[in-house]
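Lab notebook, bench 4. Still working through the backlog of constructs that have no structural model yet. Next entry is a single chain of 279 residues. Request: give me the structure tokens for it.
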Amino acid sequence: MYNPTRCREHLELGKCPVYKPDGPHELPDKKQKRLDFGTQPKHLIWREIGYAIFVSGRPFSLVEDKHFRKVFQMLRPDFQLPDRKTLCTTILDDCYEHVNGQLREKLDGTRYLNVTFDESTNINDDRILTMSFSTRDASYYYDSELFGDRRLTADEISEIVVKKLTSFLGPSPDWSRINSITTDTCSTMKAVWRILEQKPMFEHTFFVPCDSHGLQLVVKDLINLQAIKPIFDAAAAVVRYFRSSPLQTAVLRAIQRRYYKSIARSLEQVWFAGDLSIK
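Model written out:
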């Protein structure tokens, strides 16, 4: 309970370590500090908002959501959130340039680089050739090239590889930094290796087949063995059945919970070429 007499005695008798009756004093500020964005430029705050949305895969329309905007109004009423158009143009470009600059700084400081080229598709199913770099720490996607309906030959792919690496290394390229080049093991890529091996700038470079792609081909060949194929086809049929029937999947999970207390997830599925699966 608050007692003014004891409080006065506490101060006047000099028992308080902060208050001194015969000298200047300042009581500690116990009030909660107000969150303040004022020390950061607006474009940096917008960049972090962009990262939060892009990295987490949120829709661009989030910045126009009334509840999202209300949070920022409560934190700082005078702060202006970007609209959707600004987010997907100005802020997206700024985030890209910022990340690209960090990546270049990381790669420029790495003595030896391992390069991977892979033919793939993007989110629009466009055919692309991607280039990524591997260091001691991690792998980094760097660039991709659309080639649409073109059927790329080994000579054309070799030209693309040289062009991309020349652009990356700059006007005075140090080709000794390219330690290895990794691709899949198709016949076209093997032909690319033979072409690049004849070029002086790659005389020190290792050409490495992709282990994952090789293992996938090995497993695919094993599945087609007569002793294994019937068993695998039966297992794949069971998997397809439950994947196509939400009701039967729910029944299966209820049975699993009843007998195993939790849904068994120890047997992971690895999918190959559409509906093929291995348990």
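Notes after review: The chain is about 45% helix and 15% strand. Residues 266-276 have pLDDT under 50 and may be disordered. Flag for follow-up if needed.
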